[in-house]
Amino acid sequence: MQLTLKEIEAAARIVYADMAPTPQYCWPLLCERLGTEVWVKHENHTPIGAFKIRGGLVYFAHLAASEEAADGVISASRGNHGQSVGFAARRYGIPATIVVPRGNSVEKNAAMRALGVDLVEYGDDFQAAREQANILADERWLYRVPAFHPLLVAGVATYSLELLNAVMDIDIAYVPIGLGSGICGMVAVRDALGLRTEIVGVVSAHAVAYAESFRTHRIVESPATTQLADGIACRTPEPAALEVIWRGVDRIVQVTDKEVAAAMRMLFQCTHNACEGAGAVAVAAAVKERPRLVGCKVAVILSGGNVDAAVLADILGG
Questions:
Q1: Is it the case that residue 9 has pLDDT exceeding 90?
Q2: CATH number for the domain including 218?
């Protein structure tokens, strides 16, 4: 999968019909904490509070034109992809069903229902929900919306295009890895613009499938036991995403739930932005690699802000 600049710019035109570009800010206190110039890409400022909306809008623009999903769509999600599907499906008048694992975020579930999604709770993790979504698709004659697809990558790549066009000469960009659309989009934009930015993937230390697959250069499944970074709780890597990651990513950093909680507190203290666990992992990784950042211009992707109020209150309380 190799996206061109023309394809990403075409995706941006679709995205901007429904939302404005998100900001990238250089917060002085965060720079002080990390000891270098740091730019935060605020994907928590989209209409669903997460970057996924971009891919959903692009995917559904093409899907609606094909009329393949007139009877409805189905997908699996921990929340942000599901909100993206719900937002875009409503935009085009298509019924949407989302399967989430049991015990999923209460507020993400509520947000999906508010978008008109038929929510189904099944299984103990994302992979179980994904498998159930495939079963229901056959039973109910619903169109399967994938969690990874070139159109989704083209959509989410638009945040990287905004960032790398707005901030010149970024040395290192830290990008969370869930199923991989965000980091694949960053690689595509970096390469299309001919930049030398070092791209660092970030995973939970309690969900290391991508880290182990990157290290061994083969597909490795691994349990996902993170209690905080549910948005990147992946136990089965996406092969197409791995091909891009193997080719274009410099390294992958693992961060613990404790380190993620500290990063969530730091972001709130330094920027007064609330972020979910998966949204804070890039900052957690930058903190972990602080000694190697001296003299560098750094970007961190705050990929989402959809954290349950009770969870955030506990974290801010230490």
A1: yes
A2: 3.40.50.1100
Residues 174 and 277 in one domain: yes
Final residue belonging to a domain, choices 122, 144, 166: 144
Instruction: Count CA atoms closer than 13 A to 209's CA, side-chain side.
Output: 24
Gap between the Cα atoms of 63 and 67, Å rounded = 6
Q: What is the DSSP string of 156-202?
A: HHHHHHHHHHHSTT--EEEEE-SSSHHHHHHHHHHHHTT---EEEEE
pLDDT tens per residue, range 177-205: 999 999 999 999 999 999 999 999 999 99
List the structure tokens of 219.
């597909």
Task: Give me the domain span that covers residue 63.
Answer: 52-144
Beta bridge partners of residue 207, listed in sequence order = 224
Q: Could you give the number of structural domains in the chain?
A: 2
State the Cα–Cα distance between residues 27 and 7, nearest whole angstrom.
Answer: 32
Helices 106-114 and 80-91, axial angle in degrees (round to 10): 10
User: Which strands form 143-144's sheet, in the order they lie side by side?
Assistant: 118-121, 96-100, 73-76, 143-144
What is the percentage of the chain residues whose pLDDT exceeds 90? 92
| Start-to-end Cα distance in the chain | 43
